[in-house]
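[job 0412] stage=complex_fold ligand=pantoate status=START
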Amino acid sequence: MTDLPIVRRVADLRARIAVFRKAGHTVGLVPTMGALHEGHLALVQRAKAENDRVVATIFVNPTQFGPTEDLSAYPRDEAGDVARLAGADCDLLFAPDVTEMYPRGFSTSVTVSGITTHLDGVARPGHFGGVATIVSKLLLQSLPDRAYFGEKDFQQLQVIRCLARDLDMPVEIVGVPTVREADGLALSSRNRYLSPSERKQAAMLPQILAETARQLASADDAAPILAAATARLLQGGFARVDYVALCDEATLAPIASAQKGSRLFAAAHIGRTRLIDNWPVA
Ligand code: PAF
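[job 0412] stage=complex_fold status=DONE, emitting structure tokens
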């Protein structure tokens, strides 16, 4: 394990990356909001395998949280994160504060239309505007060859692919498969909010998604199967279900029955924690 250099200013990030570039090295970027777990480390490992240098970022981005969401309570553990990134052989950490990313007078936002009108675009108004803006900034600040995002946040991944393509950013956006616990629960920084009994119940989400995906693959009409999955989540202790939806994975638009490239998406609340997950169908 080597010491992990940390920079907090965009100018220092650029200066460090310029040194990598001068040596002819390729650069992979792993944007995160910290509270790192094995899912994030899988992004670093993939970036490490495909690039000479890996730059991680930690920034809890206020503009992607709604007014009733968990910004102030969002888990923060920079010392633990630094140790994890150093252990994963990351080359540089960019961990700016809010005024570095949103200085006085900041007045630009990036809006992705179409795919943001479904799923979390409805359940979390404004969320993807915040994500698109901060990710655009991080990509332009670091100009990596590739940037890595988890498939657990599948809609986010598609939003980022869309903005990079539409804004002609010279970067490859790489999606990395979801890392799961032994019982199937997708790793998420928010899992640490779960009480032991909620944690047990939470495993129902991937289990129901896997079963529902199998049923959908051979069904003509998705609606009753999706309704049954929602009812099972509510019976199993989830307090609220934002959606269980079968969608086209490119457009995120809901579809009536499974077809090539369809994916099942769910968001549900257990206690005060909101969990999301998705599953390929067919
Ligand atoms: O997935 C996340 O951790 C965040 O949404 C991201 C992509 C780092 C933007 O803040």
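The chain has two domains: 6-176, 189-280.
[job 0412] exit 0
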